[in-house]
Design brief:
The structure holds three protein chains of three kinds.
Chain A: H1 3-10, H2 13-27, E1 50-52, H3 68-72, E2 78-84, E3 90-98, H4 107-111, E4 117-119, E5 134-135, H5 137-142
Antiparallel strand pairs in A: 1-4, 2-3, 3-5
Chain B: H1 12-23, E1 33-37, E2 49-55, E3 58-65, H2 73-77, H3 82-90, H4 97-112, H5 118-147, H6 151-171, E4 180-181, E5 184-185, H7 193-215, H8 219-225, H9 233-239, H10 244-248, H11 255-258, H12 279-302, H13 321-326, H14 328-339, E6 347-355, E7 358-366, E8 374-378, H15 380-392, H16 397-406, H17 411-415
Antiparallel strand pairs in B: 1-2, 2-3, 4-5, 6-7, 7-8
Helix pairs in contact in B: 3-4, 4-5, 5-6, 5-12, 5-16, 6-7, 7-12
Chain C: H1 3-40, H2 56-65, H3 77-94, H4 124-145, H5 149-180, H6 185-190, H7 205-218, H8 230-233, H9 244-268, H10 284-303, H11 311-340
Helix pairs in contact in C: 1-9, 1-10, 3-4, 3-9, 4-5, 5-7, 5-11, 7-11, 9-10
The chains are: A alpha+beta, B mainly alpha, C mainly alpha.
Chain lengths: 163, 416, 341
């Protein structure tokens, strides 16, 4: 070991180098987002809780109970019971989504031919009551407020399904 | 202890001799203390149990026990169509989720004979390399935390956030991506992704340089990792250890170069190889791999071809959403793929790709239906976990933690 | 009132006030540790309780007091319960001989002399070394009495480590003793009178560095915190301690840290003396407090940057590097003093 090496070792040069980096972290801006007070807005494609969209013209859900989402779901968390309305339209009588089984993969949104079920950006789903995880048709329709306004437009205006 | 390593490469005999020196510690006979590094431990990466026989500080024997995270993934795959298996593969190595999706899709496409369009291949490459960067940064944080400082753990997670933000922008989830589809990828690159991605890959190598500044020449890191956990190329072949530990032992095997897939034969990059086969070299290999990944992503972004990102293959792939909303043929394809599944010929296929942890081989056997008859994932962590006794016998207890971290085991990958 | 009664009153006031101040400093040191840990890691530390989270330690104390006391069935219960106290009491006792202001001289308080030290003890330095050795018992007994392999390993490692590094500490302080000519801490501080270039860290630079490094090992802090190496041994000798018992060990560690910082400041940085003569209107205790704060910050900075040494490397450093260095320092100091005088 040369003299330079001995001096460098004795003066703790490498350790001081490391300490200088942590020292700079000490004074620069911190990256923490203090959660309940400040919240981050997820990106547009974020897969949060689902919502069923309603058709602004008829006021009823766009869903036609085709069962595509229930079939593709890898966790089998969607149960749909369909019915025929008086004017010959199909609609779901029951649409139960078990959020405790859902893995938020987004496949239901991807296969829906009517763009009726979408994944919103709402992720604050913690609750004290397990029955809150059994989402019914009404709750899913109520989740619309979390969906993008663009998604509520008619299918003809929509491109990819996501901005 | 000089700053840079001497450029003379050690030969296999030299490495074996260095390893034999640690083995000589096993010849002492003292009282054996059995310690269970149990499933709940701050530094086994998941629920891994190792029963260690200690003689003082030296580990005389190690008996690993895995299976605490077994979720029956391969059995679940037999009851789902090929499209539905993709979210399951996310949960294999959950740290580099896209790489697992990619592996399964490559194998399924080989079986079904689907060709991925160029844009889809390039996007897959970009996402795969991003997950490689995320994986290696997390590896660094965990490895250094195991050695003593929590600061780097937090710093590495901070840097990983940038990559995870890119994934959130791309596919909607930070960790369980489910982004690859049979025939391509699920969605195109969103607006603003390219700009942001370039910023991130300009910034990551500077961070890596900062990490190296702190760690690479640090005397304590040097002492704790140089010459520790030597695993020569012969041992790697014997135990099927692949990936960074193999490349740190001097073998330039990287499936991205040897059996190219996605867009790897159209980009230029170097394979990171080191020759001393110890923990320090595995660190160097992974840092170099992060830099090479940034290079690959930059080339892919520069040369991104236009065109479809998902194969317009009615028999095997899901249709594009915008077509489903307008085109009756696409709607029929949608219904067919969901209610029946892809048309798969009878046969079996094995395809291995280079995921961040090593070599992941996917074996699919099909009896002709939409659901596979058998899927097997030959995951790197499983073989690395098997190799742990061979790695740590003769080493000291404190080294066990360093070595265990350097072979990068994730229990989701190991237990499936 | 006679002088003896006045001195008695002052003694009682000091004996009550100083431990209280130490306890408060420790509570805030724990808070600052977490806050600085956050800052070094590019995140904010605790922010919830109180402005900037400064009441976090008190919240932690309440939480620890409300936890269940789990004592292992086969542990040696009396020893198990006694060990935390053995760990921190010696440190408190050292504060009795540490001067935190001028001692001796004119009456300065209501016509009586208020000495800024509890006991002007002639062998103060020896007391410090002896009590430091006693602190090892706490750790060893904790590890042994827990009836747990991990704790045993941690306790043994800690014991061996602390004893080895005490040697290096002892030899380096002999250098200071030679320079000052006395073992009394009051005299050592008085011998550093003048400006900061009269302080002993300059002639004793090697000894000072050795003492600093050895003190990190005494405190079981990174890079020498293998006994409580979280990653290898879960929590080392602390594994079986829960609730407030664990709180007592933490408290012991921080009291040790404050006391050793105070001793380092006294021996090498001039104790309660101001760095420049012109600034000596600021009272002595404030300067000592500032020096303790700087040293504690240094300990924390090192802790949150560096890795830990493996055990055999740790012992190698203690015996093969620090002890010879401190002996060499001692020899050189002795030779230089005998030549000069």
């Amino acid at each position: 070991m040369g003299l330079v090496e001995i001096i460098k070792k004795g003066a703790f040069v490498d350790i001081l180098r490391g300490m200088s980096v942590t020292g700079t972290y000490f004074v620069v801006d911190k990256v923490t987002v203090e959660y309940p007070k400040e919240k981050l807005q997820p990106y547009p494609r974020f897969r949060g809780v689902q919502a069923l969209l309603t058709d602004p013209e008829t006021g009823d859900v766009k869903c036609v109970a085709c069962m595509l989402c229930a079939t593709i779901c890898p966790s089998q968390c969607i149960r749909i019971v369909g019915e025929q309305t008086a004017d010959g339209r199909s609609r779901p009588a029951r649409f139960d989504l078990d959020l405790s089984r859902c893995v938020f993969c987004g496949f239901c949104e991807e296969v829906c031919p009517k763009a009726a079920i979408v994944m919103t950006r709402h992720y604050e789903l913690a609750t004290y009551d397990k029955s809150d995880f059994q989402l019914s048709l009404e709750k899913l329709v109520a989740n619309q407020i979390y969906a993008h306004k663009e998604l509520v437009a008619l299918p003809a205006d929509r491109e990819e399904g996501r901005p | 202890m000089s700053g840079e390593q001497a450029t003379k490469r050690p030969t296999l005999e030299e490495l074996k001799e260095r390893k034999a020196q640690t083995r000589r510690r096993l010849e002492r006979t003292g009282e054996i203390l059995t310690l269970s590094m149990g499933p709940q431990h701050p530094s086994t990466h998941g629920v891994y149990r190792a029963e260690l026989d200690l003689d003082g500080e030296v580990i005389v024997a190690a008996r690993p026990e895995i299976g605490n995270l077994h979720r029956g993934l391969e059995k679940l795959c037999e009851h789902r169509t090929y499209h539905q298996i993709i979210p399951l593969t996310d949960r294999l190595d959950y740290i580099s989720g896209f790489a697992m999706n990619h592996a399964f899709c490559e194998a399924a496409e080989k079986l079904m004979g689907v060709e991925v369009p160029p844009r889809g291949r390039y996007i897959r490459t970009i996402a795969h390399e991003l997950s490689r960067i995320a994986n290696h940064i997390l590896w660094l944080g965990v490895h250094v935390m195991d050695l003593g400082t929590q600061t780097f753990f937090c710093i590495c997670f901070r840097d990983r956030e940038y990559v995870l933000d890119l994934f959130e922008m791309l596919c909607g989830a930070r960790l369980t991506h489910s982004f690859a589809r049979i025939g391509g990828v699920a969605k195109d690159l969103p607006d603003g992704f390219e700009h942001r991605c370039r910023k991130v890959i300009d910034f990551i190598p500077k961070r890596v340089a900062e990490y190296e500044r702190i760690i690479k020449h640090n005397r304590i890191y040097y002492k704790r990792t140089k010459g520790v956990g030597i695993f020569t190329a012969e041992d790697c072949y014997a135990w099927r250890v692949t990936g960074p530990p193999l490349r740190a032992a001097g073998v330039a095997r990287d499936l991205r170069k040897d059996e190219p897939y996605a867009a790897y034969d159209e980009v230029e990059f170097e394979v990171a190889v080191e020759y001393n086969a110890d923990v320090y070299d595995r660190f160097l290999v992974r840092m170099k791999e992060i830099r090479e990944s940034c290079k690959i992503i930059r080339q892919c972004l520069d040369n991104l071809p236009d065109g479809p990102f998902l194969a317009p293959d009615a028999g095997h792939a899901l249709p594009l959403k915008k077509n489903v909303l307008r085109d009756p043929a696409a709607m029929i394809q949608d219904f067919y793929q969901v209610f029946y599944g892809p048309q798969v010929p009878k046969g079996e296929v094995y395809r291995a790709i280079e995921v961040p942890k090593g070599e992941l081989g996917v074996y699919i056997r099909s009896e002709g239906g939409p659901k596979p008859a058998r899927v097997h994932f030959a995951t790197p962590s499983f073989y690395h976990a098997q190799a742990v006794p061979a790695l740590v016998e003769g080493e000291m207890l404190a080294d066990m933690v360093a070595i265990f971290a350097s072979v990068d085991i994730v229990l989701g990958d190991c237990d499936r | 009132m006679s002088d003896a009664i006045a001195q008695l009153i002052f003694l009682i006031i000091k004996a009550v006030l100083i431990p209280l101040v130490i306890v408060l400093i420790v509570a805030f040191a724990i808070y600052f540790e977490r806050k600085f840990a956050g800052f070094f890691q590019s995140r904010v530390g605790p922010t919830y309780l109180g402005p900037w989270g400064c009441l976090q330690s008190f919240g932690d104390i309440l939480k620890l007091l409300s936890k269940e006391d789990v004592t292992p069935d086969q542990a040696d219960k009396p020893v198990f319960r006694l060990a935390p106290y053995i760990a921190f009491l010696p440190a408190f006792l050292v504060m009795a001989v540490l001067p935190f202001g001028p001692v001796g001289g004119e009456p300065n308080l209501f016509g009586y002399r208020f000495d800024y030290v509890i006991a002007n003890f002639d062998a103060g330095l020896m007391l410090f070394l002896a009590l430091g050795a006693l602190g090892v018992y706490g750790v060893l007994l904790a590890g042994w009495s827990s009836h747990n392999n991990y704790s045993l390993l941690g306790g043994l490692r800690a014991g061996a480590q602390m004893i080895s590094y005490e040697l290096a500490m002892g030899f380096s302080v002999v250098g200071v003793m030679l320079l000052a000519g006395s073992m009394n801490l009051v005299d050592i501080v008085n011998a550093q009178a003048g400006n900061f270039w009269n302080w002993y860290f300059i002639p004793q630079i090697v000894g000072g560095l050795v003492f600093f490094v050895a003190s990190i090992a005494e405190l079981n802090r990174t890079p020498f915190d293998l006994p409580e190496g979280e990653q290898e041994l879960v929590a080392g000798y602390l594994t079986e301690y829960s609730g407030m018992r664990w709180g007592m060990f933490l408290f012991a560690e921080y009291v040790n840290m404050v006391v050793i910082s105070a001793i380092t400041a006294t021996l090498y940085l001039g104790g309660w003396r101001a760095p420049l003569e012109v600034l000596s209107f600021i009272p002595g205790p404030i300067w000592l407090f500032l020096k303790i704060c700087v040293l504690i910050f240094l300990y924390m900075w090192i802790r949150w940057t560096i890795f830990r040494y493996r055990y055999n490397q740790l012992m190698a450093i203690g015996w093969k590097v620090l002890v010879p260095l401190s002996l060499a320092n001692l020899a050189v100091t002795a030779v230089v003093i005998s030549l000069v005088s």
